[in-house]
């Protein structure tokens, strides 16, 4: 695969949900190939995962350190790593890769704590390589279209932002494999729901509006008794420039699937989009009436059309959105520019949100500044 960018996967061992998702998305456009991996610290399980991914047996490693050492000696060695592990491993894995001169694409959140995020940023500054975060929803073409329309004044100055992320998979007391590490402070970090899906909602609000949150008033809670981390959160937002907002994220909303939705209200109109129906958004006109904008419609911006692979009316979803981030990351690695893949600043801001929300909620501090 001489003309494809070579990827190594950290995590994604047997039984993983997210590992195969990354592999499919990364390879969707034929620009990237998964060629190696440190899929598990158990050598046998890593080898098992390697067979499942179709990796050469000698390129399934028991650790990222072993992978970096061995791949550096190969003419066809990896050029970047994707980190798909629990949060506590993001910092050491990313730093090891960066110090070896290897680019990094990481699952969110950036790290387990804000201090770790600052440490990672310092290592990246000393070892500059492409770095990206999989805030996947920023890859949806119509999310990018909304961003373009807001930037060009389609709804006037933004006044109000409402973003919700509703899940119900943790509504019961039972905790399956996917929940186990997310509810463990030693592996997840100081935030539960806020770090798992709250940062997605936060990033979406900033990404679409182009505005930065400056202050928050947070209320995080643990609804299911016995949990050490929050499973439900809501907060008021104040954006630079005066816009106000609401953010709600919960994993205990019984019956909900993956209901991420955003509404942005401006001086002359509003936009509404839902992740569970991602191939359209509604444009409410200030003078009355509503226009439905669909993926593939004539007149979409070039940045939106670049992320669409099928004719209008043919659904595209999460895999394609993540693939758009990987395609952007490939542009970064080739030095082509024009990428919208979230980066180090987005990661730092997400971790600042987690730290501020957890501390302020515990102390019932009310309004606090969001400081990176």
UniProtKB/TrEMBL annotation:
Residue span, Gfo/Idh/MocA-like oxidoreductase N-terminal domain = 5-130
Pfam families with a match to the protein in the record: GFO_IDH_MocA (PF01408), GFO_IDH_MocA_C3 (PF22725)
Entries under SUPFAM superfamilies matching the protein:
Glyceraldehyde-3-phosphate dehydrogenase-like, C-terminal domain, NAD(P)-binding Rossmann-fold domains
Entry-linked Gene3D superfamilies: Dihydrodipicolinate Reductase, domain 2, NAD(P)-binding Rossmann-like Domain
Q: Where are the transmembrane segments?
A: none
Q: What are this entry's molecular-function GO terms? A: nucleotide binding
Domain GFO/IDH/MocA-like oxidoreductase stretches: 143-272
Name under which the protein is recorded:
Oxidoreductase
């Amino acid at each position: 695969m001489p003309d494809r960018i070579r990827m190594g996967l950290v995590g994604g061992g047997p039984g993983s949900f997210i590992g195969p998702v990354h592999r499919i998305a990364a390879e969707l456009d034929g620009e990237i190939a998964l060629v190696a991996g440190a899929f598990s610290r158990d050598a046998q399980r890593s080898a098992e995962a390697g067979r499942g991914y179709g990796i050469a047996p000698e390129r399934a490693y028991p650790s990222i350190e072993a992978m970096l050492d061995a791949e550096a000696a190969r003419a066809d060695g990896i050029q970047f790593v994707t980190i798909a592990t629990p949060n506590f491993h993001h910092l050491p894995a990313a730093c090891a890769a960066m110090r070896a001169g290897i680019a990094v694409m990481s699952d969110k959140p950036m790290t387990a704590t804000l201090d770790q995020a600052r440490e990672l940023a310092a290592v990246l500054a000393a070892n500059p390589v492409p770095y990206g975060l999989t805030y996947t929803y920023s890859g949806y073409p119509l999310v990018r279209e909304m961003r373009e329309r807001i930037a060009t004044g389609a709804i006037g100055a933004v006044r109000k932002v409402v973003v919700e992320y509703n899940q119900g998979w943790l509504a019961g007391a039972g905790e399956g494999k996917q929940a186990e590490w997310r509810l463990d402070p030693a592996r997840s970090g100081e935030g539960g729901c806020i770090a798992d899906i709250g940062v997605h909602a936060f990033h979406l609000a900033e990404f679409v509006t182009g505005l930065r949150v400056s202050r928050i008033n947070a209320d995080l809670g643990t609804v299911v008794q016995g949990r050490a981390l929050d499973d439900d959160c809501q907060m008021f937002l104040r954006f630079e420039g005066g816009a106000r907002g609401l953010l709600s994220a919960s994993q205990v909303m019984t019956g909900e699937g993956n209901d991420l939705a955003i509404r942005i209200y401006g001086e002359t109109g509003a936009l509404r989009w839902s992740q569970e129906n991602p191939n359209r958004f509604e444009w409410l006109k200030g003078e009355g009436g509503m226009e439905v904008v669909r993926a593939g419609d004539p007149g979409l911006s070039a940045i939106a059309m670049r992320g669409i692979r099928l004719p209008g009316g043919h659904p595209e979803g999460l895999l394609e959105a993540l693939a758009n981030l990987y395609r952007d990351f490939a542009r970064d690695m080739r030095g082509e520019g024009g990428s919208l893949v979230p980066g180090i600043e987005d990661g730092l801001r997400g971790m600042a949100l987690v730290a501020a929300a957890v501390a302020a909620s515990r102390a019932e501090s009310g309004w606090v500044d969001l400081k990176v």
